[in-house]
Protein: All trans-polyprenyl-diphosphate synthase PDSS1
Amino acid sequence: MPSFHKMIAEEVIGGVSVKKHYFLLTRDVQASQRAIALIAEMIHTASLVHDDVIDDASSRRGKHTVNKIWGEKKAVLAGDFILSVASIALARIGNTTVISILTQVIEDLVRGEFLQLGSKENENERFAHYLEKTFKKTASLIANSCKAVSVLGCPDPVVHEIAYQYGKNVGIAFQLIDDVLDFTSSSDQMGKPTSADLKLGLATGPVLFACQQFPEMNAMIMRRFSLPGDVDRARQYVLQSDGVQQTTYLAQRYCHEAIREISKLRPSPERDALIQLSETVLTRDK
Structure:
């Protein structure tokens, strides 16, 4: 099985992301709390492997995807394997509350993927649908991981809710900026093709805001940008509108809410680091 082990190792080692750092900022973390960070990263990595299969993606973070190198069948099994290792590690923590919290993440990931496959005809419902999908596919992992770490370190339910709300708001802001970068960054910066969401038929924040200025985009959204020229036209509409700026502004609001939540905790170097880390979400370029 050397090729299988190589495939898993390359994906996990290459998959270390900013998300893990939300759970590793305290100087004296318990072993179980550190395990949450690793479990969260494994769940995240497994979801990316499966996403790349669904999207038939060929690159991520500037490298070939697992499915590109090894094929779809092995990629699906690789994602399943990473999830199984994460599940074993989670069970070993031995805290039923934490197990319940983190298994919710896996359910949310699947539900979020189903939400992404659908769309709303009603314009007023589209943004709510988009934000719900964004929470389930991205923010749930950060929110529930932050909550799990707080449960292991503190018995106060108030602190647990603060941790959850902090992670939720940072997570949504993170994805909003990701959706902005799909229009403003180059492929080299992103490590994957730009306008990728449009090519997948997805209407993200910048598109939905642009649609308010260019109603003719409604038809393109409903047909998921499937006609020749739809992707290029939609991209031009977004760049001509204030969709990027509005989405960035919305991300700022979520980051400010995250800072407001975490500021409820007593002052400490760790709290300040979490505030600083949330601010970096808004300034990242990849």
